[in-house]
Design a protein that fits this description.
The protein has 336 residues and is α/β, with parallel strands linked by helices. The protein is built from twelve helices and eight strands. Bound molecules: zinc ion. Keywords: Hydrolase.
């Protein structure tokens, strides 16, 4: 057993589940196709984690009911609002060159199922953004593919769901979108896509010595030293995020809640605990909602051999979202 079961956030979240079975819940977006079935077990990217995350939420009663939404397969034109059409078609048709597949980390692993999951995951984040625009808060059970650039993929990411969702929001008339990226790796793809678009603010708080080794400047980057733990991490976040929200005044926040800052993460280099991640997610969501800024959350990165542990770790975001949703009685609020 991990410390997970006895942790403070798990107890809080459990209470919320039991007492709130009958009221509207915080919207969730998921497709069973997020996980490709035939994927090498030893691959660093744990493809089963979306399934395991869903199982974890289902076991605790979070994933049944009208608040759960399934994304529809997106058009190429939606993805091409951000990505180069030649790149989109090459990936979708299986003609992407080996060099780029190697940079993505998926050399020899292209399949029609990979194309479906990649597109559906982007559609899931766009759907979560649309739901959050209506209801205030929604979370995808995938997403956070922040290393994908306009014309190439990188670091296990192919199309940039955060960027596509941000542009979809701008197309809907939202004036200013903040991408709050707390994955342990810097959001270089997102930063490059929005380098010259001041209506999207990119805020990345990451481990400075970690991948990508060539960072691309976000609107605001906070590069943390190796080994930062809960207390210091939360102190810095509580100092920086309110400043960003006040200065930029976003009308919408896309939140990448990567769990790879966790102490047991295989790639992370930071020392956050389950409780620290729960406190982080509650803080981010509460800070935005209390200012009337809707939030769509995505899961971002997380690396651990034990798929059950990893799936449960990713569920911290959805449990935190539900806890805030309940506290703020957000379901009765009008966001339209
Ligand atoms: Zn990451």
């Amino acid at each position: 057993m991990t410390t997970f079961v006895s942790s403070k956030w798990a107890r809080v979240a459990e209470k919320v589940t039991v007492s709130k079975m009958t009221r509207p819940r915080s919207p969730l977006v998921y497709s069973p196709e997020y996980s490709v079935q035939s994927w090498p077990r030893e691959h660093r990217f744990v493809m089963s984690k979306f399934h395991d995350l869903a199982e974890s939420l289902r076991e605790d009663g979070y994933l049944t009911g009208p608040h759960v939404h399934v994304p529809e397969y997106p058009s190429e034109s939606l993805i091409e609002r951000v990505h180069d059409p030649g790149y989109v078609r090459a990936f979708n048709n299986g003609t992407l060159d080996d060099k780029n597949l190697r940079e993505i980390g998926f050399r020899g692993l292209w399949s029609p199922e990979l194309v479906r999951r990649t597109n559906l995951e982007v559609a899931g984040t766009v759907l979560a953004a649309e739901l959050a625009l209506e209801r205030g808060l929604a979370c995808n059970l995938g997403g956070g593919t922040h290393h994908a650039h306009r014309d190439r993929g990188s670091g296990f990411t192919i199309f940039n769901d955060l960027a596509v969702a941000a542009v979809a929001l701008l197309d809907k008339g939202v004036d200013r979108v903040l991408i709050c990226d707390l994955d342990v790796h810097q959001g270089d793809g997102t930063a490059s896509i929005f380098e010259e678009r001041p209506e999207v603010c990119t805020f990345s708080m990451h481990c400075q010595s970690n991948f990508p080794f060539r960072k691309i400047q976000s609107t605001l980057d906070i590069g943390l030293e190796d080994g930062v733990g809960d207390e210091e991490y939360l102190r810095i976040l509580k100092d920086q995020l309110p400043f960003v929200l006040k200065a930029f005044q976003p009308e919408f926040v896309l939140y990448d809640a990567g769990v790879d800052p966790h102490v047991d993460d295989e790639l992370g280099k930071l020392n956050l605990t389950d409780d620290g991640l729960f406190a982080r997610d509650v803080f981010v969501i509460t800070e935005c909602l209390s200012r009337g800024m809707p939030v769509a959350g995505v899961i971002g990165g997380g690396y651990h051999r034990d798929r059950r542990v990893l799936g449960r770790r990713h569920s911290i975001l959805h449990r935190a979202a539900e806890a805030v949703w309940e506290q703020q009685s957000i379901a009765s609020k009008s966001w339209a």
